[in-house]
Amino acid sequence: MSTIELAPRLSADGFRQELFTRGLLFATGVDGLYGRSATFESLVDAVDRLIGRLSADDKAEIMRFPPIMTRSGFEASGYFKNMPQLVGTVHCFCGDDREHKRVLACTPEEGGWTAAQQPADVVLTPASCYPVYPIIAARGRLPEEGWLVDSSSYCFRREPSIDPARMQMFRQREQVCFGTPERIRAFQSHWMSRALEMFRLMGLPATTDLANDPFFGRPGLLMANGQRSQRLKFEILVPISDPDRLSACGSFNYHVHHFADAYGISGADGEAAHTGCAGFGLERVALALLRQHGFDIEAWPEAVRTTLWPRA
């Protein structure tokens, strides 16, 4: 077998090129934006189904979303204040025929066809949990035992990169927990243990570590330090593009009462509820599997294949 077959031995550049050469991903000319093949999609779907099987007994409410959310809901979250560099907005043409003709005549220096675009009432979703909070808030107080939602959507983050693990548009599968601080901490701990076992079943060398979000600017450094000092965010890490450097495939977050304050989510006692989420980047897990086990899925260890595609 040649080294081209052994994904773990490839450099980061070699791994990326093989994904294109083998037709698993399709380059579009924009870094971080890729088409996906049937094989790659089947692998993403298998990972998604595995997460669903392992969490089925949680009896979470299922919510599925498109890759856009309401602009009002997004603005309430404070995301733009904290991470403006990642935001993607939606703009639309709202003019008449005369305005259309004027814009078509605009030079590139004048803005071209984008000159008359106006912000829409939707934005690109940054994380699959974000559309959940306003929906839960609108229902009123939480039940005594809290609430649990299983959410999923395509997400967008403006991070152009040649690293295939850093896609601008990707899918997240999350569980979002609402309740008391004790409930959220227990949820976070449970999912960290569950995720390590899930990655073990997939034959992936995973570890967890303390982390922080990429908050923007000088104030962001203080926020990141505070997030780490309070142990609010952990990530599960595996080798993906660079075999010598770990990448996050999932995270386990405790938001305290940030989203409760933003959207008005109340616990059964009327006080601001606490929230947390556990989420996985499905494409990243799929890429980690290809990096670890090679590009020929039929040649993967039987135990891994059975975990992802269990026999009926």
UniProtKB/TrEMBL annotation:
Q: One matching Pfam family, short form?
A: tRNA-synt_2b
Q: Mind telling me which InterPro entries this protein's record contains?
A: aa-tRNA-synt_IIb, aa-tRNA-synth_II, aa-tRNA-synth_II/BPL/LPL
GO MF annotation list: ligase activity
| Listed Gene3D superfamilies | Bira Bifunctional Protein, Domain 2 (3.30.930.10)
Q: Does the keyword Nucleotide-binding apply?
A: yes
Q: What is this protein called?
A: Amino acid--[acyl-carrier-protein] ligase
Q: EC number(s) on record?
A: 6.2.1.n2
Please report the stretch or stretches of sequence annotated as the Aminoacyl-transfer RNA synthetases class-II family profile domain: 155-310
Q: What NCBIfam families does UniProt report for this protein, alphabetically? A: PRK07080.1 (NF005479)
Keywords of this entry: Aminoacyl-tRNA synthetase, ATP-binding, Cytoplasm, Ligase, Nucleotide-binding, Protein biosynthesis
- For the protein in the UniProt heading, the enzyme class is ligase
